[in-house]
Amino acid sequence: MTFSARHLLGIEPLHPVEITTILDLADKYVDLNRQPNKHGDALRGLTQINMFFENSTRTQASFELAGKRLGADVMNMAMQASSIKKGETLIDTALTLNAMHPDLLVVRHPHSGAVDLLAQKVNCAVLNAGDGKHEHPTQALLDALTIRRAKGRLHRLNIAICGDISHSRVARSNLILLGKMENRVRLVGPPTLMPSGIGEFGVEVYEDMAEGLKDVDVVMMLRLQRERMDGGFIPSEREYYHRYGLDAEKLAHAKPDAIVMHPGPMNRGVEIDGDIADDINRSVIQEQVEMGVAVRMAAMDLLARNLRAPKDEGVYV
Ligand code: ASP
Fold first, then answer.
1. Between the CA of residue 225 and those of 118, 169, 190, 232, what are the distances in Å?
2. Which of 28, 17, 75 is nearest to 48 (CA)?
3. Measured in whole angstroms, how far is the alpha carbon of residue 128 from the centre of its chain?
4. Nearest residue to 109 (alpha-carbon basis) of 87, 90, 124, 85
5. Torsion of CA 191, 187, 170, 85, to 10 degrees
C-alpha cells in the first residue's frame, strides 16, 4: 500500500488506500499507547512546530503528545501572543519559522484555505489541524478509526451527521471520507444550519431527528459553532435541544447497537444530553480522543517517511 502525500491538508486529495494505510498504522499506535512504555522513534531528530491561530484543547494536546511519543522535538507557538498581533502576515510568520528548519508544521487557522496557502510557502510537511469551515482531516481520520474498531468495518454503514453542518469542518471532512469509503451518509439538522445546495451532493438531508436517525449504525453529533455564526441561526438553545439535542428518546430510532460520537468540545444540554454522552454502552466519545493521538502519530510517521524518501517517491508500508 502506498502513501505518497507530502502534506496532510485535507481528506479530499486522499485515495481510499491512503486512508486505510493511515488507519492500519494508527491501529499499531493504539497498541503502543496502551503499553507502560509508549515511546517510538519514528520522528527522532525531527522538529515539530504547532501553530494554533484558533483555540484548541484536544487537538493541540493530541498533536503534542503524538510528536513527543515518537521522539520529535515539539514546540508550541503561542500564536495569540505572537508577531501576528504586531501586524505580521501569515506568510511572513511561515517563512520565519521555515528558516528554523522544522520538519513538521501543524497549523490551525480560522480562515478556510489558509493552511493550503502556507503549505505552498514552506519546505516541510504541513498538517492541517482545522482551517475555518473547510477541513479537519485528522478529526475525520480518528472518527473513521473509532467507527472501524467499534463496527468491525468502515463501509456500507448508515451514518447520520447531526446539527450545525454548515459551520463545521468536521462534518465536511467526515462527509468526504465516509463517502470515499462507500458508506451511506445522512445529514440531519435545521435548514438554517444546512449548507445551501447540499442535496445535490448525493447525501440524504433530514430536518427531523426521528426520521434522520431511523436505523442508523452511527450517530455523529456536532457542536453548535456560535463563534462562526453572525446572526440568528436558531430560535433558542432550549428550542434547539428540544428538536435536535440527542437524548434517549431520539436515540431509540437508531439501531439498538448504534454508537454515539461527538468531536468535542461538547455543549451538554444543547446538542447532546449528558447521560447519553456518558453512557459507556453507547458513547464512544472517549475512544475518539484516544484514537486521535494514534491517528496523529500515524499521519506524522508517514509524512516523515516521505520527507526522507527521494523526491516523487511515496513510501511503501
Ligand atoms: N474541535 C472541532 C473543531 O475544531 C469541533 C468543534 O470545535 O466543534 O472543528
1. 25, 10, 14, 12
2. 75
3. 9
4. 90
5. -10
Would you write out the chain's pLDDT as a tens digit for each of its 317 residues?
578 899 999 999 999 999 999 999 999 999 999 999 999 999 999 999 999 999 898 999 999 999 999 999 999 987 766 666 666 788 888 888 899 999 999 999 999 999 999 999 999 999 999 999 999 999 999 999 999 999 999 999 999 999 999 999 999 999 999 999 999 999 999 999 999 888 777 799 999 999 999 999 999 999 998 887 776 777 788 999 999 999 999 999 999 999 999 999 999 999 999 999 999 999 999 999 999 999 999 999 999 999 987 665 555 44
Instruction: Please state, in angstroms and rounded to a whole number, the distance separating the CA atoms of residues 40 and 134.
Output: 32
Task: Decide the pairing of beta strands 259-261 and 315-316.
Answer: unpaired
Cα 261 to averaged position of ligand 1 atoms, centre (Å) = 13
Alpha helices per DSSP H over the chain: 16-33, 58-69, 90-98, 114-119, 137-151, 169-180, 209-212, 237-244, 248-251, 274-278, 285-308
Task: Name residue 261's beta-bridge partners.
Answer: 220
CA dihedral of 153, 154, 155, 160, whole degrees rounded to 10: 120
Q: What is the pTM of this model?
A: 0.95
Residues with beta carbon inside 6 Å of ligand 1? Answer: 130, 136, 169-170, 223, 225, 263-264
Residues contacting 95, CB < 8 A, separation 6+:
121, 122
* Residue carrying C-alpha cell 463501509: 155
With the most atoms of ligand 1 within 8 angstroms of its CB, the residue from 11, 128, 136, 138 to mutate is: 136
Q: Which amino acid is at 181?
A: M
CA atoms within 13 A on the CB side of 39: 5
Question: Does residue 192 have an active-site annotation?
Answer: no
For residue 317, the model assigns a pLDDT of 46
Q: Cα torsion at 19, 25, 30, 31 (round to 10°)?
A: 150
Q: What are phi and psi of 52, to 5 degrees?
A: -110, 105
Cell numbers standing for residue 259: 454508537
Q: Are the CB atoms for 130 and 138 separated by under 8 Å?
A: no
